[in-house]
Amino acid sequence: MRSALLLCATLALPAQSPAERAVAAVLDDWHLAAAQADERRYFGHLAEGAVFLGTDATERWPKAAFQAWAHPIFQRGKAWSFRATRRAITVAPDGRSAWFDEDLETPNLGPARGSGVLTMDRGRWLIQQYNLSVPIPNALMKSVKAQIEAHGKTP
Q1: Record's SUPFAM superfamilies (predicted)?
Q2: Maximum pairwise Cα distance, the chain
């Protein structure tokens, strides 16, 4: 019973205005498209000039480069699985852009966070930028920083 309640609570992500609901639907479908390895649908949610920022400091992927990198992964029949457990969406007063942050449940990264910007283009919300990160607890930061620095010194 407890797991059923938890599942219901995590699926109920608050979105109040029609624009917020529309943005949430785009993000939910984008994540679902990756889990279903639907490459066309996944990249269809990205604007032509979109940028995906990955967890590695070297990962700044313009849409075309990101799609070229991800294509073999999608061809395997399953890309990645992100599920939002919390999301906050803000729509600009003119209703033409929105920004968000979301906590993600992921099998490979563990707890993660996504944030980004969408714009309205011809009646459709498109992702302009998505920034994927792995939140590091403050108590672990000194150790993680040392590991990153040591990794950077490795030839």
Answers
A1: NTF2-like
A2: 52
